[in-house]
Amino acid sequence: MVHKKKTWQQKLEDSTNFPKTLKLEPNFPCYRALQKVGAEPGDSVVLAPPLEVDAIMKRVPKGKLITLREICEKLARKHKTRYCCTLTTGIFIMIAANAAEETKGDTPYWRTLKNNGELNKKYPGGVERQKILLEKEGHTIINKGKRLFVKDFEKKVIKM
Fold it and tell me: What is the CATH number of the domain that holds 143?
């Protein structure tokens, strides 16, 4: 039997098993990342569906930015948990970006940065395309070694 590969849009719309609220355990893939922000074993963690991640990304207006941190904070509040799984949310950010590109959708994924203001090489067209799209909106991109960042990104991040 031949299995047809899912499109990015199908992956975005797949909410099977989501949302899911779990108690944080040391064997979780996102355990170390959450521990760095204060999470402890037993804290509640949400794995939110990809469409919820996409919906947040769609609300970022031109000239503004958001990071994985703000998306996770919003999802944790919505689902009444202490934390949000940064690993699955990061994967869903990439899925939303590729689905937007695939369908010529309206998700301005280039406005979503890594937590430190870094551009995301996993986006369609890589950091080169994200840089062009951000510069069109007035952002200044700076090099730090081989990596690209939005200058003073903290001043442009929206709180949701």
Answer: 1.10.10.10
